[in-house]
Protein 1
Amino acid sequence: MNSALHHRPRIAVSACLLGQRVRFDAGHKLDRFVSDTLSKVAELEPICPEVLAGMPIPRPTIQLRSTGQGVRLVQSKNPEVDHTEQMTAVAHEQAERLDGRIAGLVVQRKSPSCGLERVPVSRGKGVPALREGVGMFVKHFSARCPLIPIEEEGRLNDPVLRENFLERVYALDRWNRLPPDDVAGFIEFHASHKLNLMARGSDAYRALGRIVAGVTRATLAERRAAYIPLYMQTLAERVSRKRHVNVLQHVLGYFKKALSPEDKAELLAVFESYRREETPLSTPVVLLKHHLRRHPNAYLNRQHYFRPYPDALALRAQV
Ligand code: SF4
């Protein structure tokens, strides 16, 4: 099955998560999953937005603060020192530099620059902070690069979120490597992700199929522009066990005539055991792949669903 998956996507990472001593206190926030596991299957590019914004190491702490001019990034002890414009400029520069080059961004949670969600927003002395902010860098970067999946290191401890993030990273990497004038490649991209999309419901697959249908060289640029935002948005949806079972049954339909009644019964029992949360997704997928090797099917062999990211990550053993 698909050898192209061995390509290592490039992922930008908050530099402190890789052990770089760039934090306000000259410390780091080394994250073992990022440094030990992710680094084996992806090219990691450390970035520290605060250092890029010219802040020294060590430095006074900064925070998001609610003001009459909206949420600003300011020094905690001296709110007159405002870094909002600098950080916005850094986010725009990095978006310009990294768009199309990286397929994901992993950031440090709760940081007023890098945090993805629930970052404290100060409302002044004696008033409890609101935990509803987005780090100033991530806010402006994601607005410029809406296709790039972004996750916090803490959320990557959740097996389902981790699996979903990596699936999107590898999918965007495949898209980034697709030549923009390749009509056949565009059609194949859609066809080879059919099962990944079906796992999010057949409506999304059909809507994306309508964008691809009848594409020509003349319409390719406009179809691609319509396709990829909807594709990435669709992949971001969490997939329930019920939806995975629908996909597994759909796959079984392709070669059930070739299987013995015992093999079919065994597969259906494994699907059911997965649905009841007694086994992880890897169990039915491995069994289906075993039967696929014995009964090859060109269409199924192209499906990234069976191997959305390198096996070394072993994520489906946990979801
Ligand atoms: S959280 Fe972001 S800005 Fe803060 S030290 Fe880490 S990389 Fe730098």
Protein 2
Amino acid sequence: MSTVDQIVVEVTAIQQVAPMIKAFTLKPLKGELTPFSAGAHVVVEMGEEQKHRNAYSLMSDPNDSREYQIAVRLQEASRGGSIFMHEQVAVGDQLKISPPANLFAPAWRAKKHVLFAGGVGITPFLSYVPVMQQRQAEFELHYLYRSQQTGAYRTELMEELGERCHCYDADEGKRCDIATVMADQPLGTHFYICGPASLIETVQATADQLGIPASAIHWEEFAGAKPGQPFKVELSRTGVELVVAADSSLLEVLEEADIEIPNLCRAGVCGQCVCDVTEGDVEHRDNYLSDAEKQSGKQMMPCVSRAAGGRLVLDI
Ligand code: FES
């Protein structure tokens, strides 16, 4: 995302939709917003002095480009982005967002769609539902949450989807038997997971055991950059030296220095932000590079990965 692409929006409503989740309605200052497809996200820029940019799924109806809606779960151990959204942003404020991008679109060729949402991972599926209903696609939703923290929109979803919506409140001791759900599906079913890494790993492992091809499994993890040790980075083409603080990502620091790095997911999955490394050891935290590429240490994804030592030199 370059700064010229950014869209300025106004926050027109903020709603507490679960104990730890707030929903934000964003409207353009004039005209309409860019249309988007089910599963798309935007990157929201937060803060003045120390900027954070986090990706959030658009959860409004893709057919409605008058406004966007996103939801933010308060993450106590976050680098500050979710705390900023929860504590600093008020109705009437303006925010800068990227145009929508989609790394989690439904595979429309599937015979059936089974959606697994964990906590705030419900958000991309809120944009799936109206489109799937419109297309009369066969689908079912399995929604896992803790009602003392998350579980947003469960009442509305249960009312709207009836027996296609299965809710599992861990705070009431309800568990989803993922293996049984997956084993019971017709051939040609695709599975979608959005939520914590543990949920994604469970569905992937179950698919392996059941012989479901990896091409039928689609996932989006709600994990942007996580904090780590501070380190220095030198840009070999200009000799510029930058410091990456414990709660900043390398990508954010490069952007602050006006170095444009392509990026879509900011979560180590799309591969857009890849940078060549000429010196230093990398702590790889992405899901994009292969194990061999990680071991070679020649490339890294600055949106999530960091220096394993105190210093890196990048070919920029
Ligand atoms: S922005 Fe997608 S991998 Fe870095």
